[in-house]
Write a structure and sequence with these properties.
The structure holds two protein chains of two kinds. By secondary structure, chain A is an alpha+beta fold. Chain A has a single domain, classed as Alpha-Beta Plaits, CATH 3.30.70. Chain A contains seven helices and six strands. In chain A, a hairpin with a 7-residue loop joins strand 2 and strand 3. The longest helix of chain A is centred in the last third of the chain and has 14 residues. The radius of gyration of chain A is 19 Å and the shape is globular. In chain A, 36% of the residues are buried. Chain B is built from three helices and no strands. The model of chain B has no long low-confidence stretch (mean pLDDT 87). The chains are: A alpha+beta, B mainly alpha. At the A-B interface, strand 6 and helix 6 of A face helix 2 of B.
């Protein structure tokens, strides 16, 4: 059984926000809720890197661990979903999530939190597949249509990959080895930049990786 | 007489001490054992359960695998 994952290639992402727009359009996401967003590191500095972030469908999901009403579940494909009928909108999952994935619509006056909304890997939720109820609560169920998440499938530079984690790893490995950086496949420098040898004279220096920082 | 009172008091003190000491044996752990909760919501059916797959998991997986490879332009374009 496939284990569904997202992978964002920081060297390819051009911060077009197409994935964000496609996600909002596909699932009719209301204002103020962003299931996916693009984060840019060292914005404006030559060598900046962008990555598209959403729910990473963790194998050991902290949101699932902290939920007081146990509304989260994991499908056989490794997709972390939740039951909105059970969610009380407490926000614990938001505090627990390292990616800031859980979103809370402003459901009423005084900024009352609505029920949590997050990326579903385009897999809907615990309603009948492709039903109207499922679409209204969770968005479109593309997985049941035999399709992958729209954000990944429409990514123009194919920076964002989505699907079976093993296949994604193979695709990314082939890319990196084609680039000639075989030893840096999962390295810090690959993700967040390396000293740029093609830098223009007078351009500000790209920030160096912190000493003793995360390694591959 | 004094000796009897003394023995009585000593016996009472001993009984109290033993009683208090044994009371500790009934103390329960104050530390909460963390137990992962179980999903309490509605059951969800697998993605291949509905049309057009109608339970045909193999075809569904094949469709997804094909889509997966469409993301690899080294294979798609060659």
């Amino acid at each position: 059984m496939a284990r569904m994952k997202f992978l964002c290639d920081a060297e390819r992402c051009i911060e077009c926000n197409g994935c964000v727009t496609a996600c909002k359009q596909e699932h009719d996401i209301p204002w103020g809720v962003n299931r996916r967003r693009v984060v840019t590191i060292n914005d404006g500095v030559p060598g900046e890197r962008s990555i598209s972030v959403a729910c990473m469908h963790c194998s050991d999901a902290p949101c699932m661990a902290v939920c007081p009403v146990d509304c989260f579940y994991r499908t056989d494909d490794g997709v972390v979903l939740h039951d909105k009928d059970l969610c009380i909108g407490c926000g614990y999952c938001f505090y627990a999530c390292p990616f800031g994935a859980p979103q809370f619509p402003q459901a009423g006056a005084f900024g009352v939190r609505g029920k949590m909304d997050k990326c579903t890997f385009c897999a809907g939720g615990p309603e009948a597949n492709n039903s109207e109820a499922e679409y209204k609560k969770y968005g479109r169920n593309r997985l049941a249509e035999g399709k992958l998440p729209v954000c990944a499938e429409m990514c123009s530079t194919k920076a964002l990959l989505g699907g079976d984690g093993d296949v994604l790893a193979d695709i990314y490995r082939e890319r990196v080895t084609t680039r000639g950086r075989g030893s840096d496949v999962w390295g810090w420098a690959t993700a967040y930049g390396r000293p740029d040898t093609t830098k223009q004279p007078g351009a500000p220096a790209a920030p160096a990786a912190p000493a003793g920082g995360p390694k591959s | 007489m004094i000796r009897r009172v003394f023995l009585l008091l000593a016996g009472a003190s001993l009984a109290t001490a033993v009683g208090a000491g044994l009371a500790g044996c009934g103390e329960r752990s104050q530390v909460v054992d963390y137990k992962q909760g179980k999903y309490q919501g509605k059951p969800d059916k697998p993605a291949y359960d509905s049309a057009p797959w109608n339970g045909n998991k193999r075809d569904w997986e094949l469709a997804l695998a094909t889509r997966n490879q469409n993301q690899n332009e080294y294979k798609r374009i060659r």
